[in-house]
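Recall that a protein's primary structure is simply its ordered list of amino acids. Everything else, from secondary elements to tertiary packing, is in principle encoded there. The following example makes that idea concrete.
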Amino acid sequence: MIELSHFSFAYAGGRDEGLKQIELCVGQGECVLLCGKSGCGKTTAIRAVNGLIPHFYDGIKQGRALLDGQCVEDMPMHEISGLAGTVFQNPRSQFFNVDTDSEIVFGMENLAYSRAKMEQRMQQVTEELHLHPLRRRNIFHLSGGEKQKIAFASVYAISPDVILLDEPSANLDAAVIEELKDMISLLKKQGKTILISEHRLYYLRDLLDRAFVLEQGEIKAVYSREEFLQLTDAEREQLGLRAFDLEQVRFGATCDNRGYNTVGQTAGIFDCGKHRPPYELAIENAAASHRKKAVWKNVRFTAVSGEIIAITGHNGAGKTTLARALCGLQKLDNGSISLNGRRLTPHKLSKLAYMVMQDVNYQLFAETVEKECAFGVKRADPHAVREALEQMGLAEFAERHPNTLSGGQKQRLAVAASLVSKKEILVFDEPTSGLDGDSMCRVASILRNLAAANKLIFVVTHDPELIASCCSHIIQLGKGGLLEDCRLDETNWPHAIYHSILQ
């Protein structure tokens, strides 16, 4: 069904995540995984199959991309979309409507389905994907996970023979990832051909048939499912891959063998923690709403500088709302936020706090990566900018435009910019979404260094590997309030805390 033969592609402008002489074949009914470090070419391979290369992205192409025996380059886009449906990492990039029902039927309308067939298919999709709570909703009012389900449903509705998934789990909580797993399993039972680019591997253990590991645009290795799952931890980490089994993730693992355990550095962007005053931030009886709908209430907890606090909970529990409140971007309906006993207004919080957003495209403004790091910072230290880029593995891209980076590289750039900001309260909203194992370890190391410098650090995350690597405290939201507030250690990690993260 899918074939890339001697396929090479170099993006116009010199972007590095192209492909070099790729040989890839996916048979009817196979589920094939593309994995590897950020920027290795996974998304480019997806674009070659769905026709975005060469119909949308400019560059130099060699070799052939075939879909059901036909050359993709010679096929019109409407014909390609009838054969292959794509779910992108950021579902917002593929929405054309403002309500969920219209979005689900959009593809069917473009393929000229009759009204009766659309209604019948809509009911079938709703039942099979359990979409009843998402019907007739405003897309802009959905959580990230709910948007991803609608994107999947819109593709599933037209029932293409080939399904292409590009980092589909990047912004999903554990419960929605389980639903995604069930959806992919349903596609397999229907005999669909599936090509999936992914960093999170644990939920695909029972689904994949083969795995292709890419490195710098080339295929480094090809494994059967059995061979892939038998890789040792050292071999897996050498390839920059994440864990195959979350039950085996150890609390306190610091990625030493990947070379990012740098706690204790005090030069450059990291101030020496022992010379900084301690901070205690308290939230008392807080309540917040979003678009006039209550999100949570009676939330109270205390955070101390030097800790790394994970904010967890299911999609839609209000984690991002809490993050925005901590940064002064959202006013509380009730309650207060105080620092060392002094109550803070949203304006004062905005002066003290910096937020790395979940969708980093909202906060990238400058024309080069280097300038982005210093954007909005008065008298930014050029040395600190260079060191931040080096810490995040982006120094070689300093003169590139931020929009030419891969999704994972953009995420790392936003983290680098937070380091240069010199703010006392740092809030990271899903900082490892779309990141490979190496990049996740880079972020964990940066967070530990910031904690050693007595910063107040909050991390909104669904990522148990990140939490195990660096977090010392967990705040879990759900059911309109606070469900969990406790410190993390070796005794509670594998049991109650592990299950609270994944529920």
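The radius of gyration is 23 Å. The first strand starts at residue 2 and ends at 11.
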